[in-house]
Design a protein that fits this description.
It contains 1 helix and 10 strands, in the order H-E-E-E-E-E-E-E-E-E-E. Helices cover 7% and strands 41% of the residues. By secondary structure, the protein is mostly beta strands. The strands form 3 sheets. The chain has a 4-stranded antiparallel β-sheet with strand order 3-2-6-7, with no helix packed on it. Strands 5-8-9-10 form a 4-stranded antiparallel β-sheet, with no helix packed on it. A two-stranded antiparallel sheet has the order 1-4. Strand 8 and strand 9 form a beta hairpin. It is elongated, with a radius of gyration of 19 Å.
Length: 148
């Protein structure tokens, strides 16, 4: 609340000496990550909480099973180690993965969080150069959006 009051004073043009030289930086209040299974699999944090925005982060990952033909990615918000214990913001599936042994097919994940709170998550499959992306407006997402 204090930061909001300071920002309002700056936007109103208040010339008070206590706020003349202040610079407020927007940050991501909760960690954003990827979960590979809603039924309890581990979550990997991509953008840590309190990271200044805008920010763009990349993360490599691989198939988890032999001859895996699809992979589902859950975009999560939270600090818990298991996907099911965090807030799921969205999900999508990469299909038609070429068969191969576990770990042979790689993906490059990208989280791009802009200054307006719009998250673009994109995933590119390394071998086929196939990509998918999803946009999430974090201000309009259902559920909790604070640390309390």
């Amino acid at each position: 609340a204090c930061g909001a009051a300071i920002q309002a004073a700056i936007l109103n043009g208040d010339q008070h000496t206590n706020i003349e030289d202040l610079l407020l930086i927007d940050v991501n209040p909760l960690s954003l990550g990827v979960g590979t299974g809603i039924d309890g699999y581990l979550t990997k944090i991509i953008v840590e909480r309190y990271t200044p925005i805008p920010v763009k982060r990349f993360h490599p990952c691989q198939t988890m099973e032999d001859n895996q033909d699809s992979a589902i990615f859950y975009i999560i918000e939270g600090e818990r180690p298991q996907t099911k214990d965090n807030l799921v913001l969205g999900s999508f599936t990469m299909r038609n993965i070429p068969p191969g042994p576990r770990g042979s097919q790689g993906f490059n994940l990208c989280y791009d969080l802009d200054a307006n709170g719009i998250l673009e998550h994109s995933t590119q499959q390394e071998t086929r150069k196939v990509s998918k992306s999803i946009l999430e407006n974090l201000e309009k997402c259902q559920g909790r959006r604070s640390m309390i």
